[in-house]
Design a protein that fits this description.
Distance between the termini of chain A: 62 Å
Largest interface: A-B, 30 and 30 residues
Number of domains of chain A: 2
CATH class of the largest domain in chain A: Mainly Alpha
Mean pLDDT of chain A: 91
Radius of gyration of chain A: 19 Å
CATH superfamily of the largest domain in chain A: GntR ligand-binding domain-like
Helix content of chain A: 55-70%
Number of strands of chain A: 3
Strand content of chain A: under 5%
CATH architecture of the largest domain in chain A: Up-down Bundle
CATH topology of the largest domain in chain A: Four Helix Bundle (Hemerythrin (Met), subunit A)
Oligomer: homodimer
DNA sequence: ATGTGTGTTTTGTGATCACAAAGCGAATTT
DNA sequence: AAATTCGCTTTGTGATCACAAAACACACAT
C-alpha cells in the first residue's frame, strides 16, 4: 500500500484557500480599517461560488478579523481606542507568558534565527514596506513563541494580531520608522543572558509601545 | 416614524440560533469530550437545512469549541493534559486581569449579586447538577468581569471556557463537590476589602484548582 | 438646500442537488 | 484467525436558485 508522499499537500478545500488568503491580508495590514466586502465579490475574486466565500468570511468574523453588521455585511473593523488598549494589554499578558516559557528552551540556533529576522526587518524599514514590516515583525515574535511549545496560547496571540491587523497598518503608516525597534535587541540580549525579568519587560515594552500611541 | 420597541429581538437567523444553542451545550458541559456529530443530524435536530448547520459548526470550530478531522467531520475535542494546562494558564492570566480591572468599579450592589450567585451555586451542588453547577459558576465569574468594561478580554475568557466545556463536565463529574468552592468566598471578601493582591490570588487559585487535578 | 418617498438594484440567507471521498461492513482470501 | 478487498452507505463540499430585506439613487415636495 502506498503512503501519501506529501501528507501536507492535501487537496485544500476552496473555502480554506479563501480563508487563508484573506487572513494573511488582514493580519499583515493589507486591508485598511473599515473596508467593506461582499460575499459575491469575494467569490468572484477567488473564482468560487458564494458558499465557500461565506464560510471563509464567517470564520474570520468568529475570530474577530472581520466585523459584521446586523444585516450580515462584513468589513474590516474600525477599533475604538478602548478596544485597542484592551488588545494591547492582551498581547502583553499572553506574549510575556509565551516568551517566558520559551526562554529555558531557547538555544543558540534560535537566537541566531531571531537575529536574522531582525536584519530582515531592518530591510523592510529601509524599503518603507509597511506590509512587509508587519509580517516580518510578527514572524520574529512567532519564531520565539513557537519554542514555548504552547499551541493554544500561540493561537490566542495570533488571534489578537489578526484583530489588530488593519489597525497596525494605519499605525505603521503614521510613524515612519527609521531603525529597528530597539526592544527587539533587548529581547535577543535577554535570551542570551537567560535573564527572565529582563525578557518579560522587553517583550511587554515591544508589544505595548506602538499601540499606546495609536490608542490616544 | 416608529422606533422598534425591542431592538434586541431581531429576527434571529437560523444559523445563529443553532450556533447559540450548541455553544451553550458545549460551554456548560452538556456534551462529553469526543462526541461526534454530523451536519445533517444537526440540521435535522433544529429543523433547518445543512447550510445553517454547517455555518454554526464552522463557527464553533473557529472558536475551538469543536474540533474537525481532515475530512471535515466535527466532534467535541478531547484535550491532552498539556492543552488543559495551557488553557488553565490562560484563564489565570486573563481572568486575574479582568478581576483586577473590575475591582475599582465593584460597588455593594455587585458584591451582593455575587453572593446571591454563590448561594445558587450551593444549590446546584446539593442537587448534584453538573451542568447547572458549571453554568452558575461561570455566571459568577462573568458577573464580576462585566464590571471590568473590557469586552475583548471577556470574549477571550469565554472562548477559553468554551474550549474547556466538555472537559469541565468530566472534571466535575469526578470530584463530587460537597460545598461551595471557598475561593469564591475569598474573592467576595477581597472585593469588599478592596484588596487587589488578595483578589488576584483568589481568582488565580479558583481558576487553577480544579483544572490542575484534571491535567495529571 | 433638506428631507422624504418610491422604485430598482444589490446582498445575505437558506434550501436543494450533484458529486466525490470517507467510512463501514460483510464476504473472501491468505 | 487475521487481514484484505469490494461494494454500499453516509457525509462533507460546493454550485445554483428563489426569496426577502437592506441599500441605493433619483425624483419630488417642502
Amino acid at each position: 500500500m502506498l503512503i501519501n508522499p506529501r501528507p501536507s499537500e492535501v487537496p485544500a478545500a476552496a473555502h480554506d484557500r479563501v480563508y487563508r488568503t484573506l487572513r494573511s491580508r488582514i493580519m499583515y495590514g493589507d486591508i485598511a480599517p473599515g473596508q467593506a466586502m461582499t460575499l459575491r465579490s469575494i467569490g468572484e475574486e477567488f473564482e468560487v461560488s458564494m458558499t465557500p466565500a461565506r464560510e471563509a468570511a464567517r470564520r474570520l468574523v468568529a475570530e474577530g478579523a472581520l466585523s459584521m453588521t446586523s444585516s450580515g455585511r462584513v468589513s474590516t473593523p474600525e477599533l475604538s481606542s478602548e478596544r485597542i488598549e484592551e488588545l494591547a494589554a492582551l498581547r502583553a499578558l499572553i506574549e510575556v507568558e509565551l516568551a517566558s516559557r520559551a526562554l529555558p528552551r531557547a538555544h543558540m540556533a534560535l537566537i541566531e534565527r531571531l537575529q536574522m529576522i531582525n536584519t530582515s526587518i531592518a530591510e523592510q524599514i529601509a524599503r518603507q514596506d509597511a506590509v512587509g514590516y508587519i509580517r516580518t515583525n510578527l514572524e520574529f515574535h512567532r519564531t520565539l513563541y513557537l519554542r514555548a511549545q504552547a499551541p493554544a496560547m500561540l493561537a490566542m496571540a495570533e488571534q489578537v494580531w489578526l484583530q489588530l491587523g488593519p489597525t497596525m497598518r494605519a499605525l505603521y503608516g503614521r510613524l515612519r520608522r527609521k531603525e529597528l525597534p530597539h526592544f527587539h535587541r533587548l529581547i535577543v540580549a535577554s535570551l542570551k543572558a537567560g535573564d527572565e525579568p529582563g525578557l518579560r519587560l522587553a517583550v511587554r515594552s515591544d508589544v505595548t509601545q506602538g499601540l499606546k500611541m495609536l490608542a490616544r
